[in-house]
Backbone:
């Protein structure tokens, strides 16, 4: 596996966080009303959603920086920060799937599982001892 694979994975994770973070920070009511499953656990709180959006945006910035510089320590910290969000998010939703549709619940669960597996795979890649370093 190469630096290209690592960088590509980091870019995907960063884009997800940056889009979700910006949407939630700047348009919290839209995020609450328009993203399926978010309104399954009311009530809506603009304060909470703006805080979530800014935090998500911050994680996205750190992951984007890791994708740009590919410095080993920065990549590890960025992936751990991503997992600090995505793993509890998966666990919460796995226990709260009683929404409108079983298809939507299954899709949500699949996406959340991938949101944990991708950073874990990238973390394994960057932690793997290699005779030729893929990151600096």
Residues:
């Amino acid at each position: 596996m190469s630096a290209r694979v690592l960088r590509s994975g980091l870019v995907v994770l960063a884009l997800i966080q940056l889009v979700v973070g910006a949407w939630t920070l700047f348009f919290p009511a839209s995020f609450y009303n328009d993203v399926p499953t978010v309104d399954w656990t009311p009530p809506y709180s603009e304060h909470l959603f703006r805080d979530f959006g800014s935090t998500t945006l911050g994680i996205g910035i750190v992951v984007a920086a890791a994708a740009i510089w590919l410095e080993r320590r920065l990549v590890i910290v960025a992936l751990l920060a991503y997992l600090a969000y995505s793993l509890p998010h998966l666990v919460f939703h796995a226990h709260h799937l009683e929404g409108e549709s079983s298809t939507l619940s299954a899709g949500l669960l699949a996406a959340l599982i991938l949101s944990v597996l991708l950073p874990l795979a990238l973390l394994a890649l960057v932690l793997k001892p290699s005779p030729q370093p893929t990151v600096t």
